[in-house]
Structures are given as structure tokens and as C-alpha cells.
């Protein structure tokens, strides 16, 4: 259990540090393209993925860095990818919105809202056909919960009785649009009943709440009990993407950072309970800081892909 | 040993043989068995036109009915393909691609490139295309030009039972996403097909008929139309060479160019809507790569730029027929600058 | 009220007679293409459309004849269309699956499952923008209730607070697939809550039940009360399309025809209550029989479209 | 009076003028205002790149934010168009067509034909296309060849602020469904644009530059690339005629054919993927209709058959540039049979 806690903290801290740093680096103009940061939402990816292993696959979103890190994708490869380098996870061909590592069961960040849930029906089906006990987990946002692909996937997972978990990350906004407006029901979890599965709501700032709810859902899925929809509620710390002025928001971020932050709450809880010492956590912070520093340094120094790379990797054979 | 079987049977046999050979092959689609949850027969349909009939009982647990949720189940096939399965998903009519295209062209087709080569998505999407069954505008389209346009997809358009079986087995064994386009008006046509399993490689055209006067490239069901025209042309002492590309992506450009270099004349017959279709694609290829050999304008025989009409009277006028191919071939042969 | 009852019976009888006759005619091989018959489901189209007028629009499905007749599309034009004649509602260009009459607010049968609900959000939006008090009604099947387009439309209608009614015609099957299998919830109406609207279940063999539920929903919509999902449960009398052997079914049709039939029940109820006399109903039957007979005769005698028609009607201007 | 404004401003102005002129024009899309239900600013975004900014307050109740439900809201725009509105729906990136294509190509595009002429669907779908912003494979496609393939759709590809305004006003007044494709890398480019309202008719190409040695047909952003190449060609004493079709459907075939009849040489520059694209479409047209005038192979300058890469290093290689157009033009001018 101490190991799990340590790992949970390490993952959450890594995600946070990664995102804070990308935020800074983006401002310098050196990072190309669109970047969507996961800071504030760390407890979700971490609380879910800590239950997963090699049998399991996840599908992510445009806001994918956290899911990648939590599922074990190499952090340096990720940073290099965001910089468009040949040493990146996708050799610079994908970028932030397409980081993937299929060998780790990470099916990719996804530039299409609602792109992931159908794919996860497939990874869950494969696990079922192969009898591996594996599960599929689809992460998607409140905005994506209105995309037909997502809704179809919920129904299909139930109909096929798949070992799947649908994690609706409700951070209150899809771009500048409030989920209280765009989701016609009170909660995304209220949709679960219409697709024949349990729907659960958890506080996304609370690692332990997410971890517990995800644990139950994943265990049920592994045991043949079918899919679950988990709605995780929280706030993103940065804009929709880097560059977003966020004039549609009020003071919710400052409040969340101050009073709800998953890392702070985690630290308070585990130290007060005597489960992990402050020094252990501080050591992790330092270790993570170094990792991120190295990742950025190496990414910046790495070569970009060249003419030879342009037309490769389209097909296995053609 | 070859026997005469139908296009439908050839496809069914290809599926059955590959399912027997490789456990990872699974089949899914609306009513691909037919009867899920119903009180009567549980393999009641075998697909809307009976193509998958019988597989459900032969391969228990490996033929899956689906809700009418094309994005979800096509996506599921794609997701499963990334995890060790070789799914064959049926999109009942190609016309339905509009509700699930994203999973095909933004997901399956792009995984390998976006992920820097670290993906393999051996999924086959079988789908029914084409006019002739009075099925009207939303159930009669060709649309393979759209899939051909997309890098990362392979597109197969079998013209006969023999091609159907060999190309489908190849599609299933292939490691890239394949769109397998079956012409609904061909299901009941018959031809010689070996009983044993065999593959036809992608990107290798079939020279259906040799001839030195004009090259006719024809796609899918249009191959038979071209043959009809070629018989008539022969009566006019014109020898047409007919090329069936068999796959539009990859396209066997070499065979086409060689033929045109020999004949100097080209007619392309494509049942797809005329703008940005295979007829334009192949014409452009030849106008670029074999210009020096061309002795006449390149003719394209296609339907008009209209949706497919319902009435038999109109649909028969809509679909390219042998007479139109004949006229085009004569025009290019008789052309003088 | 007597007028409404008479009209209700006339519409239901017309639909029944139309479909029974198309069934017979199809068997002769003279009708081209795919034909899906609505017999058995008459109470739905009729019970809903009797509340509608020129301000209102409906979208239908591949099984569209009943909706067309109930919304006032000319029966002879429909029959001619099914025969592919130039005198048909669509001049022979559409066929059974595309009969439409926009001047009557009938947006078309639709060959795409789930094609209609998004369109109806639009007609409802237009009514709202123009302040006509009009409503939009989308008919769709149990199978279509699993199509993402339908589910998205439910949410959008709620979010935009549209004067829309969604009528899920649950006839137990999508092709050969049972709705008890393909719809993961117990009822389609159970999905309403997830999209913030009331969900109602009615007996589709009972004209009065449908009429009442639809009346409430349509009134609420006209009054600015937003959308409703109505699930109508019944059985289709014929196969999915003409030619379907229906080996997936048990004896439900015989039972329904005998004991549940909407026309029989309607007749019993109105005659027993003394609201309409047997003779009045018989006279309607005779009138309808003649109409259908004439429609078929005229359709068979009508000319087919010609070469001149092939390339017209693609664009308003090009 | 013309002033210099940006492509973004030109589009915004066209929308504002048409909304002022015609009450039935409404605008909808994800964050087209921005801020629905949020505590802060209620016109916070004006679309993801600010194109519709300001309209929300100018035209109360006529700029609608939407959930991320492209099928539903694009379908709603289409449905509303059949009932007296002239909706302009924004499909944020053209790449998202895969989740809503059915409503566009099976519904809007086919209504009029399927219903025997008894339908009118004046809907405009504005959408952003093209590479250059390091937006990677799912946010950088062109895809207008797919829409051009579909009978019943009109497709507009404005190359400058001037064309953008005049073509958008025409699109809104047009009675057919129009796909209006805005190149994301052009939003910040500027040009002279009349303040008053004006329309540019569909199907009339713009001859951007006269020249007798080679015809260059270029689409959308490629017009500027062709101009750059033409300047360089001039230094080589080669006079290029540049044609901007402005609409790909309808296509002004006459202007293209006349030019090639004069120059005898054709280069087509298309940013879309190379198979079944506009480059092939226009090449095929010329190879059929102006063969007698052709004095050289038809060259096509397009990206390779790959998804759009993310890294700036690769994306810059991917997009056709002036050097490639220059090479192609030189090749056809210097060609000897
Ligand atoms: C199909 C599709 N529609 C629209 C977009 C543009 N888009 C990208 S992210 C986003 C908002 C997503 O909101 P949500 O699902 O809540 O995820 P979050 O950004 O809050 O993590 C939108 C509209 C897209 N990428 N794909
Ligand atoms: C998008 C799409 N998928 C599949 C089909 C093929 N199809 C036509 S009708 C039908 C069954 C529809 O079932 P339901 O919605 O219950 O309507 P019913 O036929 O029972 O009236 C199917 C699968 C289609 N036309 N469109
Ligand atoms: Mg969100
Ligand atoms: Mg049904």
C-alpha cells in the first residue's frame, strides 16, 4: 500500500510538473501546434490507471498528457514529441494531440472529441475474446459526453457486456462552454441508466475517491460484470488550450488550486495519517523536477525528423 | 479445384476459411448472424443479403451482431485490431459511411503515421456499394473514391467471385486497414473459384483481355460492362485491352501505363460520381506519366453528376453501360488531331 | 371530437389498406427496390400527427408510408412514387424510402437510420426563431435509438429548449435484432432522463393512449416547455422489408393481429361508446378501398420518368 | 470603398452584413459565441480562432453555441434551412466531417433530387481546412475533394479576403447547400476588400495573372504559392497564367480549358491528398477536353500520399511550395516529346 501511495504521488507530481513546464515553455513560442494541459485533473488519470496493467488498454483525448504518464509512457519521449523531435514517442509525426504507446496499452491521445470510446469497446472485446481478464478504459470530457460516438459506445459496451470503464472527466467546460449548459442532464453519470450500466460520481480532486470508484468498476469489469460509467468532477487549471484567455471563467481555478488541489490534499492526508513522510514526498518532488528538466533539455537538443521520414509509416506494406 | 460459385458464396467461403485458419479473425455487423435476443432462429439473416449466413454456428462466439451504432462497432473493430484481433466489420451499405467515417479515416487510417510507425491495425471493413437494385440515392453509391483519397487506407473493389475470394483473404491477412467494397448487383453472379484458400496481392491489376487498339480501365462491376463493350468492339475490328485494377489503393500504375504506352488510347469506366473519382485519378495519372504515348483524348465513362435515381427507367440511364463504353472507345480510336 | 375520431379512423385505415396492398403488389414483382411496411403501427403516426398542422414538421424513417399519410401527403402520389412513376410524389426519383412533401411539413422518409432526429432539431429551431408556435416531430425506431445522431439530437433539443417531440417507435425489432437485446436499458424512454426531458411509454396498439401522450408533449412544446421522448411499443405486422422470411420471430404477429390490432380496438371502443356508428366506419373502409384501388390503377398506368429527368433537380442553380 | 482587412475580418463582415440584411440568417457552432452557461464573458471566443467574434451581441438570439454534437447541429442547420432559415453552421475543422458527414451528403445534398425538385436547402457549412499550423493529422486536412465528389453540394475555396467576403455572401444567398472552406493559415493574411456588400458568382474562376506559356490552376491557399512561383518563373522568362477556380463545384471548366488551349501546358496545384483530388479532377478534364492543345504532360503539385505530419520540419516538406510549382512549370515548358 505504501508503494501504491508513493507511486500515486509520483505520477500525479510528474503530470503536474510536466504540464506546468509545458505551459512555461509554450509561452516562449518554441512548442508548435495546439497544446491542452491536464494540470488539476491528475487524480483522475492516476486513480484509474493505478489499477491497470499490461492486459489493459486506455484511450485518451486531446488533453492526453496525464493519461499517457499514468499509463507509463516514457516522459522524455513525450516531451520530445511535443517539441516535434525525431526522438519523440511518435518520432515527431504526432505531437501533443497524438502521443501513443501501443506497447503500453496507451491507444493515443485523440484530436477528435469522442474518438476514443468506440475504440475502447474494441480493446475490451479483444480482452474478452482472448480471455485475458483485461479491461478497456475510455477517458473523455464533458463535451465529449454529447458526441454520438461516445453515447453509442456506452450502449454497445452494455449490449456486448464488455469489460470496459468509461471515465467522463467533467472539468466544467468544453472549450468556453459550460458543462452545466451543454449536458442536458444534471450529471453525465445520469446517462448511465439509459445504457444499462451503473453510473458513479466522484470528486476528482480526491485521489482516494477516484481510486476507489475506479477499483470497483475495474474489478467488476474483470469479473464479467460489464461496464461502468464514472463521472469525475473537477476543474482544469489552465485554459482550454495554451493561449486561451479564459474570459468565460470566474475565480474557480484560484479557489481550486488553493483549497481543492489533489496533490495538496493527498499530501495532507498521507502525512497526517502517517502513511508517507514529508521527506519521502519531497524526495519524489525533487526526482520529478529533475526528470522534467532533463526531458526538456534533451527534447530541445534532439534532432527533428527529416525528408527521409516524411513518407514512411503510412502503411505496414503498400 | 475450381467450381462455379457465386460472388456471395466466394465471400462467405473466404471468411469461413480465414476464420478456420486464424482464431483472431472475428466478424461483426448488423444482423451478421441475425436474431440476437429474438425468440426464433438465431442465424436468421447472415447479413442483409445473406453473405455471412452460416458462419455463426460454424464459429461460435466469433460472429457478433451489433446495435445500429456504426461508429461504435466499426470503432470497436478498429480498437480490437490494435489488440491482436483481425476483425472483419460489415458496414451494411457503403452509403452509411457518413455516420462512422471518423473512426475509419481519422483513427484507423492515421494510427500508424501519427504514432510514428508504432501501430498495426489489421481491420477489414466489408461494405456493399453500387447501383442497379433500385435502392435509390442513399443505398446505391460507390464512394470508393473517398476512401481512395485517404492515405493509410487500402481499398479493394473485386469484380468477380474469383477476385472476391482471393482479395478478401488477402485483406484479412493484411496488416493495414482495408475497405473491401462488394458490388450488390454482383452477389448473384457466378464464376470459377478454387476451393482451396488463395490470395491475390494488392496493387496488382488483372489484364482481363489483351488488345492493342485501346486500353479500357474498369472498376468493379464495370469490368463486365467493359467486356461486353469489348466484344462489340471486336466486331468493329477494334481490339480493346481491359484492365481491372482490383485495388484502387494501392493502384497498379505500372500495368496501366504500360498498356497505354502500347495502345496510345485510354477509356476509364467508373461507376462512381464523376468529380474527383477513379476515372479522373487514372486519367490524370496517364496524362502525367504517359503523355508521350497518348494519341487521343482520355475518355471517362461515368454516371452524371447527380444522386442515384430510384426509378428503374432512370437508374438504367444513370449507370454506365456497354453502349457508352463502346462509343467512348470508338471515339478515341477514331480520333484524329 | 367526432370529426377527429372519424379522421383518425380514416387515416389508420388508409395506412393499413395502403400497406396491405403494397404487400400484395410487391409479391407480383412489379414494385422495384426495398419496401418497408408500417402495418400494425398505424396508431402511432395517426395519434401523433392528428395534433399537427401546417406550422409543424415531421421527419420519418425507411418505414415511412404511415407518417406520410398521417401528415397529409397525397396517397396517389405516394403509390405512383413507389412504382417509380413520373407522377409520383418525387417524380420517381425517390421511391418508397424517400417520399416527402415539404409543403406539408413532411421532411421525408429516410434511408439512413437516425437521419431524421437532427433535422427535426432544425425544424423546431426554425419554428422557435420565427415564433410560429410550431413543433418538430421525429419518428424513429428502436434500432435508431442506438444511433449516435438520435442521441445527440435528444441532448441538443434539450439544451436549446426546442419545441420538439421524439417518438421512438419500438416495434421490437431492428431488422432481425430484438430491441430487448440492442437497447441496453429496459425501455428507450429510460434514456430521456439522461437528456433532461420527460420520457413516456405508451401502448402503440391503442390510438387513444398515443393520442393523449402526444397531445401533452406537443402542447408542452408549443408552450415553450421543451422536448419530450415518447416510446410507443407495438409490433410490425410484416417483415422488416418485403421479402424477409422472419424466421427470427415467434407467434407475436398473429397474436397482435388478433388481440391488439389498433383498428379493431378503435372500432370496438368508439362503437361501444356510441361515438361512431359501425356504418360510418364501414363507409370509410369502402372509401379507402376505392382510393387505394384507384391509386394502384393510376400508378400502373402512369408514365415513367425519361432521359430529360435524369439530370434535373440536383441543384436550384448550378 | 475598399480597405485592407484580414481574411478573418472579411468573413466576419460578410456574416454581419448578411445577418443585418436578412433576418433568416442565423449562425451556429461550437463556441461561435463562447461562454454558454459560463460565469464570465458571454461572447468569450467567437469561434476557436475568433472568426464570429462580436456577432453575438450585434444579433441577439441569432448566434447559437452548440454542444459538441456535430451531427445534431449540422443536421439542425439543414432542417432549419428547409423551413425558411438561412443557417450558417460552423464545422470547426473540416477534419471533423467524419462525425457528421451523413447529414451533409445523404441529407442536405440529396433532398432536392430525391424529392423530385420539391426541396430547397439554403444552408452554409463554414469550415476550416489546410495545413501549416502544426495541428497534425486530424486538424490539417483539406478534404474538399470529398465534398466536390458529392452531387448536390457546392464547394467554395476562397483564396483571399476579397474572395472570402464575396463568396460567403453569395453562399448565404444561394439556395443550395454550400460547403465553405476557409484556410486556417489565411486568417491573418490581408487584402483589399470593399466595405459594401458584394457577391462573387459561383463557377466563375478568377484569372489571377495572365500569361501565355503555362497555365497554373491553384486552389485556395495554393494560389499565393502559385503566384510566388510565377514571379520566379518570370525571371526565367516564363509567363504563367494563374487560374483560381474559387469554387470547385461548380467548376469553371471553360476558363481552364481556354487557358490551356492558349498555353498548351498545365500545372495543377492542390494542397489536398493526391489521390482522387482536384488536381486529378482538373487534369482529367483537360486530358479529355483540351487534348488537342496539350503540348506537354500535365503536372500535378500535391503533398505526398501521407497523413499530415506534426513536426514543423516535416509539415514544411509536406505542403506544396513555390519551388515545387516552379519545377513543375519548368518541366512542362521545357518538355519535348
Ligand atoms: C469532433 C470534434 N469536435 C470538436 C472538436 C474541437 N474541440 C477540441 S477539444 C474541445 C472541447 C472538449 O471538451 P471536453 O470534452 O469537455 O474536454 P476538455 O477539453 O474539457 O478536457 C473541442 C470542442 C474536436 N477536436 N473534435
Ligand atoms: C445508418 C444506417 N444503418 C443501417 C441501416 C440499415 N437498416 C435499415 S432499417 C434497419 C433497422 C431499423 O430498425 P428500427 O430503427 O427499429 O426501425 P424499424 O425497421 O423497426 O421500423 C437497418 C439496420 C440504415 N439504413 N442506416
Ligand atoms: Mg471539459
Ligand atoms: Mg424497430
UniProtKB/TrEMBL annotation, chains A, C:
Q: What's in the keyword line of the UniProt record? A: Oxidoreductase, Thiamine pyrophosphate
Name of protein = Thiamine pyrophosphate-dependent dehydrogenase E1 component subunit alpha
Q: Where are the transmembrane segments?
A: none
Molecular function per GO: magnesium ion binding; pyruvate dehydrogenase (acetyl-transferring) activity
InterPro entries named among the record's database cross-references: DH_E1, PDH_E1_Alpha_Subunit, THDP-binding
In Pfam terms, one family for this protein is: E1_dh
**Classification via PANTHER family:** PYRUVATE DEHYDROGENASE E1 COMPONENT SUBUNIT ALPHA (PTHR11516:SF60), PYRUVATE DEHYDROGENASE E1 COMPONENT, ALPHA SUBUNIT BACTERIAL AND ORGANELLAR (PTHR11516)
Which cofactor does the UniProt annotation name? Answer: thiamine diphosphate
Recorded hits in CDD domains, A to Z, give: TPP_E1_PDC_ADC_BCADC (cd02000)
BP GO terms, sorted: pyruvate decarboxylation to acetyl-CoA
Automatic annotation (TrEMBL), chains B, D:
Sorted alphabetically, which InterPro entries does this protein's record hold? Answer: THDP-binding (IPR029061), Transketo_C/PFOR_II (IPR009014), Transketolase-like_Pyr-bd (IPR005475), Transketolase_C (IPR033248)
Does the keyword field hold Oxidoreductase?
yes
The domain of life is: Bacteria
Please give one Gene Ontology molecular function term for this protein: oxidoreductase activity
Q: Outline the extent of the Transketolase-like pyrimidine-binding domain.
A: 5-189
**Entries under SMART domains matching the protein:** Transket_pyr (SM00861)
Name the UniProt key words of this record, in alphabetical order.
Oxidoreductase
In its keyword annotation, does this UniProt entry include DNA damage? no
CDD domains in UniProt: TPP_PYR_E1-PDHc-beta_like
Protein name, as recorded: Alpha-ketoacid dehydrogenase subunit beta
Amino acid at each position: 500500500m505504501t508503494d501504491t501511495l508513493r507511486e500515486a504521488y509520483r505520477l500525479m507530481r510528474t503530470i503536474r510538473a510536466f504540464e506546468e513546464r509545458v505551459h512555461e515553455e509554450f509561452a516562449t513560442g518554441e512548442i508548435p501546434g495546439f497544446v491542452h494541459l491536464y494540470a488539476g485533473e491528475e487524480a483522475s488519470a492516476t486513480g484509474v490507471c493505478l489499477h491497470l496493467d499490461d492486459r489493459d488498454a486506455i484511450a485518451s483525448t486531446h488533453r492526453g498528457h496525464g493519461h499517457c504518464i499514468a499509463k507509463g509512457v516514457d516522459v522524455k519521449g513525450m516531451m520530445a514529441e511535443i517539441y516535434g523531435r525525431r526522438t519523440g514517442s511518435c518520432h515527431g509525426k504526432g505531437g501533443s494531440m497524438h502521443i501513443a504507446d501501443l506497447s503500453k496499452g496507451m491507444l493515443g491521445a485523440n484530436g477528435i472529441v469522442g474518438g476514443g470510446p468506440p475504440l475502447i469497446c474494441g480493446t475490451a472485446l479483444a480482452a474478452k475474446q482472448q480471455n485475458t481478464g483485461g479491461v478497456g478504459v475510455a477517458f473523455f470530457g464533458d463535451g465529449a459526453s454529447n458526441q454520438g460516438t461516445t453515447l453509442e459506445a456506452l450502449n454497445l459496451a452494455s449490449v456486448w457486456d464488455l469489460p470496459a470503464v468509461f471515465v467522463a472527466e467533467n472539468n466544467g467546460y468544453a472549450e468556453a462552454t459550460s458543462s452545466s449548459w451543454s449536458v442536458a442532464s444534471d450529471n453525465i453519470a445520469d446517462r448511465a441508466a439509459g445504457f444499462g450500466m451503473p453510473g458513479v460520481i466522484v470528486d476528482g480532486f480526491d485521489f482516494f475517491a477516484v481510486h476507489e470508484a475506479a477499483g470497483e468498476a475495474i474489478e467488476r469489469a474483470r469479473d464479467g460484470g460489464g461496464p461502468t460509467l464514472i463521472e469525475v468532477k473537477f476543474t482544469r487549471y489552465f485554459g482550454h488550450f495554451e493561449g486561451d484567455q479564459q474570459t468565460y471563467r470566474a475565480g474557480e481555478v484560484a479557489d481550486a488550486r488553493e483549497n481543492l488541489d489533489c496533490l495538496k490534499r493527498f499530501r495532507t492526508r498521507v502525512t497526517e495519517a502517517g502513511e508517507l513522510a514529508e521527506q519521502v514526498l519531497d524526495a519524489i518532488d525533487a526526482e520529478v523536477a529533475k526528470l522534467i528538466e532533463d526531458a526538456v533539455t534533451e527534447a530541445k537538443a534532439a534532432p527533428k525528423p527529416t525528408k527521409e521520414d516524411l513518407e514512411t509509416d503510412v502503411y505496414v506494406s503498400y | 479445384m475450381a467450381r462455379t460459385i457465386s460472388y456471395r458464396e466466394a465471400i462467405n467461403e473466404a471468411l469461413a476459411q480465414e476464420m478456420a485458419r486464424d482464431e483472431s479473425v472475428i466478424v461483426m455487423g448488423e444482423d451478421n448472424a441475425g436474431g440476437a435476443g429474438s425468440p426464433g432462429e438465431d442465424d436468421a439473416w447472415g447479413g442483409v443479403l445473406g453473405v455471412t449466413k452460416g458462419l455463426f454456428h460454424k464459429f461460435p462466439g466469433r460472429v457478433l451482431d451489433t446495435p445500429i451504432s456504426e461508429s461504435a462497432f466499426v470503432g470497436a473493430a478498429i480498437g480490437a485490431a490494435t489488440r491482436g484481433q483481425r476483425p472483419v466489420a460489415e458496414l451494411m451499405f457503403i452509403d452509411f459511411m457518413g455516420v462512422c467515417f471518423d473512426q475509419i479515416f481519422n483513427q484507423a487510417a492515421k494510427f500508424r503515421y501519427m504514432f510514428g510507425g508504432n501501430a498495426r491495425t489489421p481491420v477489414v471493413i466489408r461494405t456493399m456499394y453500387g447501383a442497379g437494385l433500385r435502392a435509390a440515392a442513399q443505398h446505391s453509391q460507390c464512394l470508393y473514391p473517398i476512401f481512395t483519397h485517404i492515405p493509410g487506407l487500402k481499398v479493394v473493389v473485386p469484380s468477380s467471385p474469383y477476385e472476391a475470394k482471393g482479395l478478401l483473404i488477402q485483406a484479412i491477412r493484411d496488416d493495414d486497414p482495408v475497405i473491401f467494397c462488394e458490388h450488390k448487383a454482383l452477389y448473384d453472379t457466378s464464376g470459377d473459384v478454387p476451393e482451396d484458400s488463395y490470395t491475390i496481392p494488392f496493387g496488382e491489376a488483372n489484364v482481363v483481355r489483351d488488345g492493342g487498339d485501346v486500353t479500357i480501365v474498369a472498376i468493379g462491376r464495370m469490368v463486365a460492362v467493359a467486356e461486353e463493350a469489348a466484344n462489340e468492339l471486336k466486331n468493329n475490328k477494334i481490339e480493346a485491352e481491359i484492365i481491372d485494377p482490383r485495388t484502387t489503393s494501392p493502384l497498379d500504375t505500372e500495368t496501366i501505363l504500360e498498356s497505354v504506352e502500347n495502345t496510345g488510347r485510354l477509356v476509364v469506366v467508373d461507376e462512381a460520381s464523376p468529380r474527383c473519382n477513379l476515372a479522373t485519378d487514372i486519367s490524370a495519372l496517364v496524362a502525367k506519366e504517359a503523355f508521350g504515348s497518348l494519341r487521343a483524348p482520355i475518355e471517362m465513362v461515368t454516371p452524371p453528376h447527380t444522386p442515384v435515381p430510384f426509378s428503374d427507367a432512370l437508374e438504367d440511364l444513370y449507370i454506365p453501360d456497354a453502349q457508352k463504353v463502346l462509343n467512348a472507345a470508338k471515339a478515341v480510336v477514331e480520333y484524329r488531331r
